[in-house]
Amino acid sequence: MAREKIGFIGTGVMGSSMVRNLMKAGYPVSVYTRTKEKAKKLIEEGAAWSASPKELAKEADIVISIVGYPKDVEEIYLGAEGVLAAKEGGIVIDMTTSSPALAKKIFAAAKERGVAALDAPVSGGDIGARDATLAIMVGGEREAFERCKDLFAAMGKTAHYFGAAGSGQFVKMSNQIAIASNMLGVAEAMAYAKKSGLDAEAVQQTIAGGAAGSWSLTNLAPKMLAGDWSPGFFIKHFLKDMRIAVESAEEMGLDLPGLKLAKKLYEELSARGMEDCGTQAIFCWYEGE
User: What EC number is given for this enzyme (predicted)?
Assistant: First the structure.
């Protein structure tokens, strides 16, 4: 049985690995990114190239995107050269962490053209994208979700449907809120262990197996201790997510002091020119670097 033709927009840290996993699963994939050079390796590995989101949408059964910011999402779907300027029928899936309100707007615009739209942000970072172990959180029509189960299985370990358009983004905001405070806890624990004169690496390995255990403690604390600030997830993108979470929480009348504190400290790092570092660089705040 022939696989659906996939159009994929965004070939950054996450997108490149997701495209590779789709091709490994037998999907024919066309890609678009603003700079063709960034997609060179994927093209060499078998992906086709499209010159614009509109051109990509004409040939694809399913369009997937994972880009930087909500403004980018809006442009690639609703712009004059965007996906919905050309696509009729089929499915579009935005996997960017974006605004719930924008997800609803895209859903409505897609529906007018007979296109099913899903918002399906992910968690798991560059490692999850590489290993196809992403957690995928989906909003939109259930029928479209059911049709995409095999597709999601090629990119992630779990894919859960949560309800109407925007639901996937609300779940991702919950995820980011949990990570924000946890990142401070992990950095503080490692800073405390070092200041106490302990073998901080041994402390990390020990407490990661107990009640304090978390993905960040297991995967990012070692990078903190090694002074490795290479991005699995950029500070600038984490700040974008935290801003969306704060804004949507305020719209619901909910105060989130832990999230606001994390946002403040990351903003201080960004002001030091560290916005392109990985989120584990929050350790620098505690080290006074």
Answer: 1.1.1.60
Cα separation of 195 and 217, whole Å?
Answer: 18
- Kindly report, residue by residue over 163-203, the tens digit of the pLDDT: 999 999 999 999 999 999 999 999 999 999 999 999 999 99
Token pair recorded at residue 146: 């059911």
d(CA 183, CA 22): 31
Active site residues: 172
CATH number of 6-165: 3.40.50.720
pLDDT at 75: 95
Residue spans of the domains in the chain: they are 6-165, 170-285
How far is 223 from 207, CA to CA, in rounded Å?
16
pTM, 2 dp: 0.89
Contact 126, 232 (CB under 8 A): yes
Question: What is the fold of 170-285?
Answer: N-(1-d-carboxylethyl)-l-norvaline Dehydrogenase; domain 2 (1.10.1040)
List residues bridging with 161 in a β-sheet: 138
Query: Mean pLDDT, to the nearest integer, of 226-245?
Result: 94
